[in-house]
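Researcher: Go.
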Amino acid sequence: MDRVNLAPYLAVLRTPRVPSSLVLMLLARIPATAAGMTITMHVLLGLERGYGAAGLVGAMSTIGIAVGSPLMGRLTDRRGLRAMLALSLVTEGVFWFVAPALPFEALLVTCFLAGLSTIPVMSLGRQVVTALVDRSGRRTALALDSMAVEVAFMAGPALGVFLTTHWSSRVAMWTIGALMVLFGLVLYAVNPPVSSEKGERVPRREWLTRPLVGVLISAGGATFALSGVEVAVVAAMRDLGLTAWTGAVIVVMCVASLAGGFVYGALDRVPPVWVLMGLMGLLAVPIGLVTGSAWVLALALVPTNFLCAPTIAGTGDAIAELAPGNARGEALGLQGSAFTLGAALGAPLTGFVIDHSAPGWGFAVAGLGAVGIAAASLALTRTRTRSAQLV
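Model: Structure:
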C-alpha cells in the first residue's frame, strides 16, 4: 500500500449527485439490514418458534436474495432502474403487509419468493456510485459506499430489535416494510443513474471471465470469514459469561472496518483483492488464542476487520473494471449473491466446529477457509494470465 491522500475524497464528494446518492443509499439500506433481524425475532417471539425455525426462515430468505440479486440487476441493465423498482415495490409491499399474519409454513415460502424480487440496495448503491464517478475516483467512491454499508449494519439490526422490544414483532415488521417501500418510492422519484455507458450489450460469456469469477470468489470468501468470525465472537463472549457485551465488541469490529475503508479509499495504490481477502482470513486465525478476555479479544479483532471494508470495496472496483457498464447491474448482482452465499456457508460451518470443540477454533476455521478461497481466486487469475501470454 502507498501513502494516504485525502484529495480523492474531496474530489469524489464534489462530484454532482454523489453526496446525495450516498446518503440516500445509506438510508435505504438501514431498513434492509433490519429486515433479517426483524423476521428472526418475529419467528421467535411472535410465532413462538425456536432458533432452528428462525434460522430456516432466514435461510429461505437468503437463498431467494442470492438467486434474485443478479436477476434484478439484469432487469435494471435492460429495462432501467424504475422498471426494477416497480416490480420490487409491488412484491415487497404485499409481503411486508401480509407476512406478520402468516403461519410459519407460509412465511417460509413467502420469504423465499419475496427475496427473489427484493430491491438489491447493496449492489444498487455500488452501481449508482460507479455510474456517477469516473474511473479515477471509483475506488474512493466505493470505499465511501462500503463505509456506508458498515453504518447501515450498525443501525439496521438495532432498529429492528428496538421496534420489536418496545412494541411487538408485528409492528416492527410493518414498520420496516413501510420504510423499505418508502425508500423504494424515493429511489423511483430520484431515479439515479445506473450506467454511464451506452451501446450494444456485451454477451455474458464475454465478460464473465475467469478473473471476474475469481473476484466473485473473493467476495464470497470475505463474507465467509466475516460471518464465521461473528459467530465465533458470540460464542466466545457467551463462554466468558459476557453475552450482554457482545454488541460492544461488534461495534469495535464495525469501527475497525470503517477505518480500514477510509484508509483504502485514500491510498494511491492498493493490493489485489485476493491479497486483501487472504490477509483478512490469515489475521483471523490466531484470534482464538486470546478469547480469555473480552477487551483483549476486541483488540485482536481490529486487524482482520480493518481489511473488511477494503476487501468489499476492492471487489466492487474490480467488477466495475472487468464488466461493461451496461451489464454492471447483473455483475454487481452476482457480487451480492457471492456475499450472501459466503455468509450462508461461513456461519453454519463455524458454528458446527464450535459446537464440537471450542470458540477459539471458530476463528481458525473462518480464517483458514478464507485463505483457501483466496488461493482459489489467485489460481483462476493466474490461469487466465498464462493463457493470455501463450496467445
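Model: Residues 208 and 265 are 26 Å apart (CA to CA).
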